[in-house]
Amino acid sequence: MNGSPATTRLYHGKHVILFAALLVACFCLSAGAEWKPADGPLMTKWARDVSPDNVHAEYPRPQMVRESWLNLNGLWDYAIRSKDDGQPKEFDGRILVPFPVESALSGVMKPVGPDNRLWYRRNFDVPVAWGEGIRILLNFGAVDWDTTVWVNGMKVGNHRGGYNPFTFDITHALRPAGPQEIVVSVWDPTDAGTQPRGKQVRRPRGIWYTAVTGIWQTVWLEPVNRRAIEGLKLTPDLDDSKLIVEIGTKLTRSDNVTVEVSADGEVVAQARGLNRIEVPIPDPRLWSPDDPFLYDVKITLGHFNLPVVHDEVQSYFGMRKISLEKDEEGINRLFLNGEPLFQYGFLDQGWWPDGLYAAPTDEALRYDVEVTRQLGFNMARKHVKVEPARWYYWCDKLGLLVWQDMPSGDRYIGPNDPDFQRTKESADQFELEWSRVIEAFYNHPSIVMWVPFNEGWGQYDTARIAEWTKKLDPTRLVNSASGWTDRGVGDVHDIHSYPGPSAPPVEEARAIVLGEFGGLGLPVRGHTWQDERNWGYRSYETREALTDAYLVLIGNLRPLIAGGLAAAVYTQTTDVEIEVNGLLTYDRAMIKMDAAKVRAANEKLYLPPPIIRTVVPTSQDDGQVWRYTTAEPADGWQADEFDDTGWQIGKGGFGTENTPGAVVRTKWDSSDIWLRRSFDLGGSVPPELHLSIHHDEDAKVYINGTLVADVKGYTTGYIQIPLGEKARAALRPNLNRLAVYCHQTGGGQYIDVGLVSITERTP
Description:
By secondary structure, the protein is mainly beta. It is 13% helix and 35% strand. Residues 116-189 form the Glycosyl hydrolases family 2 sugar binding domain.
């Protein structure tokens, strides 16, 4: 680093020298006394590690690392002014970048709103060690939402989009010497606009969270030569055992690009070329959650016959392939490296009580990934938010698969509504931001699925968007619409079921997945955003009860895998503000369930799918004949010998149209229904019997007069409930009687019941 002051950080097994100018360090230390966190409702343990001279000091772009850089995180001046006012002459105070102005860690914790504009200002010096005749790039990890930047009074650029990195070349605006000034203005309409924004709103409530405005990822400078690597695209080709390297810079015949691949510090491959270079990888070691092995790669831009180096960057990649293929039984599964792998993960919101969109430290980012893996999950669905590149780095390094949502915005449509028509401005902005996100995070091996739409929010032109997404990145799968607005396109059919679990019917061309389920809630006093009126899909009062309920869900999930379910996403990683559905508290101070029991249950999901055999069919595919009544029958109606000849005869299932997941063949719209049906086991009682049931709402199930199941609430599809010794004792080898009572209070309603045998495969 030419003798310049430096700090050392570990980057993927190698030490990378990160430039930290002495002037900047002194500025931060002297300014530190002016900053302290605002009095937020809840803080994490990492907040104590945050200070103006030590705030996200890691190199922010691990997929394209340059040695020399200057971190501009720290204290900036800030002002909040009317949207139409010009640049302020006086500022309101100091803000700690890169924390959103609404967050406690910013030191400000004030709202901005669509009628105002947020201004930033700071000075810096260009390090003398960088020399002359170079270009200076000003990089922003992410700023929400409409950003304009001036350097020394000269406008250097504007960017719209809250989730992707962007860069301005500020060389032309720099003074020959002395302090340089940066001024940044940000306008964010939040939920008053149509732009992609995720779950932030002006009036937080329920599943909607505090607004986020302004800089929320690292800001930094880097020097580059006139000829430099403008972009880098790394594509592992497992079928042909090679890495394809594409350089974004326009190159000429006088240029030469050298690619050097290393494994555990040893060079294993080299190749040279221009914009597209194929590098054979001998005996490739594959990347997977069980073995997240990463190759290092160095890319050098030089002259084809002179010892000149224009630019050099470090990166890494994982040799892995994600695909949709059929298993041995002809069912579509999600394959990793040529083998079916059930993907099971958290719905991960990525919110922090002290930093909102911004994690307090890099260690905090790592913790979320680490604890997800420790609990036995192999995937996270990053929900309507895009993280800093460092989060994906930890997913790459620790072996966590990622489904990446596009942040939602604009209008909603209901489950039965057609796609709506976005305005041209709204559609153009959505597609611009989505393409930039895919381009920015393309190199991360952890990302295996792109998800453009969630639950009908902003959903338009679904078939075209799904096809376009696939063209942007043909190496990954596309989940065109997670939730209830499926259009029959993309690689998967994704449903949501709370608490669930349930699964859609098996399809010929797509895999079936459960994009959200669970949502089991437990507020933990002292670890909540507010003391009272917390919210969960279903609430429990103790850690033990919460764990037991989770284990029941996972027990019900396992049979669905046998039926074809290829992936599932549990809601959610942590509590968020008043939402207490997390497996962890919002401050990450407590795992709310028994971690050992959760991990043991989760790990069973990755075993080969069990064998499921129908014993008494439900009416999901073919209507089964039942006797039924909606008038309360005499006592003993569930007994085998009860005379039901006066009851009506109808085909299941029973309920009302538009009940989620229901196949209604006989209308039932009163509060109660009683059902009876006989079945013959053919001489023997099968092993591992489960009740297959879809109920909305409370139901009791009897076999030969014995109560074998008493279920509460509702499901949005069929679940399998293990039947214990009491049920087996009630069964006879031949003729048996099934009796069901269902009660409902409001909304949709449905009941259908059958029996299945579920056995694990022998090794």
